[in-house]
Design a protein that fits this description.
Blueprint (H helix, E strand, L loop, with lengths): L16 H7 L1 H28 L8 H23 L9 H27 L1 H79 L5 H31 L8 E3 L1 H19 L2 E7 L2 E2 L2 E3 L1 H17 L5 E9 L7 E8 L6 H4 L11 H6 L6 H11 L3 E7 L3 E9 L8 E2 L1 H4 L18 E5 L3 H13 L3 E5 L2 H10 L17 E5 L7 H10 L6 E5 L4 H10 L3 E4 L4 H31 L2
Parallel strand pairs: 2-5, 10-11, 10-12, 12-13, 13-14
Antiparallel strand pairs: 1-4, 3-9, 5-6, 6-8, 7-8
Helix pairs in contact: 2-3, 3-4, 5-6, 5-13, 6-11, 7-8, 8-11, 14-15
Length: 579
């Protein structure tokens, strides 16, 4: 070994690689072959590492990169020994090897710094597997979430379809009730109207009693119809209550006067007692409150055979934020058992099925009354003992009582006397255009108007009504008549063939007809009234037509024309008396 080293250097100690190789050609060939094998091996290692780095899940990619570069450097070193270190390029050996040494040292230093991390490779691989499992689970959850979202979207579509179906069913029900209201109320107008006519023209007591029976049962049918319509409006959320200033004592007195006829007929007592002062005025819907009280007192009269009915009125929490006015309706009737009380306020339900045969009724009254009381800010409670009697307590909100006087009901108003005299006759020196397609209603309404002194012209549908109304206007087409022939008022049925009342009224207003138009309709829903007003009607009468209401409304709207005509007559009379 020591004898070989001097042979590699000259006398001055310089490196003579060519001479050294010449020293043993066989050894040089072995050296070249070894360098080529080593260079190829390092190159294959580098290629494999670079190929592995194409995968994204390789642990410690930085270490892989460094080792691959180190392998390339080794490949370059051994390849240079074969191809470069020959004269005259062998002089580069002093440059190539130091550069390779620097790169290898740097790579080795960085690999040593990565060694602690490499020591934790099993734990990191386990963590990687755990993270891979969590990622797989997350992907599964995302897939489930997408599936649930798709199901939810499908359910939403089904819900929308179901909602549309329910709305269509509700609309169909409303239309059915409106049509049934029209179909039932239209013949009821003729039945009740002509019954009144007969009552005024019959003398035999047997005939009068028969007419009274027809009248009584017709009114009963009308009450049932109104109950069904009220329940439908409440369930559809269309029941609207007003907030009006009214006197609670006046409402209670009206109820007492109305129900006393029924209690007197059964030999029952009917009284009212006030427990302390009550507000002079309250803010509520007096019509709906009266409806509740009449219903409850009517039930008490129906189920009481002996004794009587008493009303007890009191004001609760007068100084509080929500004062309430309560009325107890106490009877001495058949009473209700405890297990039946819970069924009282269910639609079409009575405490005992046998009572529907004995006492009659549909079981709607209490349901409607409680829901109306809730709309008025109150409620209805009941206590009862079988075979002893019942107490129904209805409470309603009074509104704010700030600045409202509390009065003693016994001194606030003098007792009113119920007049049994017939209603005063209404004189109607007017010209009326009646647009009605029903022959029975044509005869009845014409009879009532003519009996009051009116001149009536008939039209069988809306199209004829428009022609007749416009023909009476001065200067209208070739059919213009004298101004004195103009109609003072138009009574317009809203359900007619060819052209209904809505279309006819809208057409008249479009053509400039300015006279009053009163709608006659069997549709009793609140939106029906608004629809009539929207197309141009001045007011609204619901069938069955009440005689007094009809004559008073015609007189009120025709009053300007009557006054003008009377003034013209007076003026022409004064001119005739002048010489």
């Amino acid at each position: 070994m020591y004898r070989f080293l001097p042979a590699l250097f000259g006398a001055e100690g310089s490196w003579l690689p060519g001479e050294a190789r010449a020293w043993s050609r066989a050894l040089g060939s072995i050296d070249h072959t070894a360098d080529m094998i080593i260079a190829a091996s390092y190159l294959s290692i580098a290629v494999v590492l670079f190929w592995a780095l194409r995968r994204r899940d390789v642990p410690f990619p930085g270490a892989f990169w460094r080792f691959a570069v180190f392998a390339l450097c080794c490949t370059a070193l051994h390849a240079s020994a074969v191809f470069v270190l020959r004269p005259p390029l062998d002089q580069l050996a002093g440059l190539i090897k130091p550069l390779t040494a620097v790169v290898a040292g740097v790579l080795a230093w960085t690999m040593i710094r990565l060694f602690p991390e490499i020591l934790y490779l099993p734990q990191l691989m386990q963590l990687n597997e755990s993270m891979a499992g969590e990622i797989a689970e997350r992907k599964w959850l995302e897939s489930e979430l997408r599936e649930h979202a798709a199901n939810l979207a499908y359910l939403n579509v089904e819900l929308e379809v179901a909602k549309a179906t329910c709305e269509a069913a509700s609309q169909s029900k409303s239309e059915f009730l409106a049509n049934m209201s029209h179909e039932l109320r239209t013949p009821m107008t003729a039945i009740l109207g002509f019954t009144d006519v007969l009552l005024g023209n019959l003398d035999q007591e047997e005939d009068l009693e028969a007419c009274r029976t027809i009248r009584r049962n017709g009114e009963h049918l009308l009450v049932l119809l109104n109950d069904i319509l009220d329940l439908s409006k409440i369930e559809a959320g269309r029941m609207q209550v007003e907030e009006l200033n009214c006197s609670p004592q006046e409402v209670l007195d009206d109820v007492i006067k109305l129900m006393r006829v029924r209690t007197d007929a059964k030999g029952l007592s009917l009284g009212i007692r006030y427990e302390g002062p009550i507000p002079e005025r309250i803010v509520t819907d007096p019509t709906r409150w009266r409806q509740i009280l009449v219903n409850l007192v009517g039930n008490a009269v129906k189920f009481t055979e002996v004794g009587g009915i008493s009303l007890v009125v009191r004001l609760n929490d007068a100084a509080g934020p929500l004062p309430m006015l309560s009325v107890d309706i106490i009877d001495t009737g058949i009473g209700i058992s405890d297990e039946k009380i819970g069924q009282l306020f269910q639609p079409f339900t009575q405490a005992d099925a046998s009572t529907s045969r004995r006492f009659g009724g549909t079981g709607l009254g209490l349901t409607i009354s409680r829901r109306l009381a809730e709309l008025l800010g109150g409620s209805i409670e009941v206590t009862s003992t079988a075979h002893v009697g019942s107490c129904f307590t209805v409470s309603i909100s009074t509104g704010s009582l700030q600045g409202v006087a509390l009065v003693d009901p016994h001194q606030a108003l003098a007792p009113a006397i119920v007049s049994q005299l017939p209603l005063p006759a209404v004189e109607l020196p007017v010209r009326v255009l009646l647009v009605e397609d029903g022959p029975d209603n044509q005869r009845l309404i014409s009879f009532l108007l003519k009996k009051a002194g009116a001149e009536v012209k008939l039209a069988g549908n809306g199209e004829q009504g428009v022609e007749l109304a416009m023909a009476s206007q001065e200067g209208w087409g070739n059919q213009a008549e004298n101004e004195d022939a103009a109609y003072d008022i138009v009574l317009m049925d809203m359900q007619m063939p060819i052209m209904d009342g809505y279309q006819a009224t809208a057409e008249l207003r479009r053509l400039g007809y300015a006279g009053p138009i009163i709608a006659l309709t069997a549709h009793a829903m609140s939106h029906d009234r608004q629809r009539c007003l929207d197309v141009g009607c001045d007011d609204y009468l619901t069938k069955p037509i009440d005689r007094q209401a009809l004559l008073e409304m015609v007189a009120r709207y025709a009053a300007p024309a009557i006054t003008q005509r009377q003034a013209q007559v007076a003026h022409s009379g004064s001119d005739a008396t002048q010489p």
